[in-house]
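Revision sheet: structure tokens.
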Amino acid sequence: MNSGEFFSNKPLSLKFFSVDRLCMNSDEEESFKKQFKDSFDQEMRLEIVKDKVDEISRKIDFLEKKLNNTKKTVEKKKFMIFLDTADVEEIRKAHSWGVIDGVTTNPTLVCKTGRSFEECIHEIVNIVDGPISAEVVSLDSEGMVKEARELAKIHKNINIKIPITPEGLKAIKILSKEGIKTNATLCFSANQAILVAKAGATFVSPFIGRLDDIGHEGMQVVRDIVQIYKNYDFKTKVIVASIRHPLHVIEAAKCGADIATVPFDVLEKMVKHALTDVGIKRFLDDWAKVPKK
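Predicted:
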């Protein structure tokens, strides 16, 4: 193989160093230098273009991720209000206002009605077309799962309230695999919320009022849970529970919680405002002075 054959398939930038160049006259060498320069300039331009394309691709990837995150945020932001009661009359009244998305119950709330648990639940599911929480009373996972399966048969909207214990986590895991919705209840820490999310809970209910009662800031726990769930895209929805007053609802909405479950008296307080009453009275008084035909 001669030098010409060796360099025939090489880039011009390599051909410049061919030993054949030693045999060139001055004109041929000048022509070859020009070819080399043109080839080198072309290669540099291609590298610059490639770098620009890579840079644009990175920017596009960044913008796509940002857009997807924005879409997720927009899709998520539907704040819901549940009524925390087993009193059917309260539920009927609140539902007639058109603002109730679901209902949460527990053994204490059912006890206050003086009615049987089954009777209350059957009536509630016929009033509100949304998630209805019904709580198990067993303490072992086997008993919880058995109760949950029976409760889930009542209606498609039933989700099962399960206390956060090691046995409760076992039950949540089993039920989530079976497609039975769960509400991990009696949550008092972000650590507990992490565990139930990993177990597959549909909802988690941090009890903020009870934390406030013992000198803790209940809403800080909710903020922590919301941030953690957002960081790792956990699908478990946060129900702010044990709400004592309307400000709790505002704080729940501000920090990004999915749901606030409120007693009926708190819902009534949310509607009322002294200036609204004053305004209505003034309008009516003025209307009475308007000449009538």
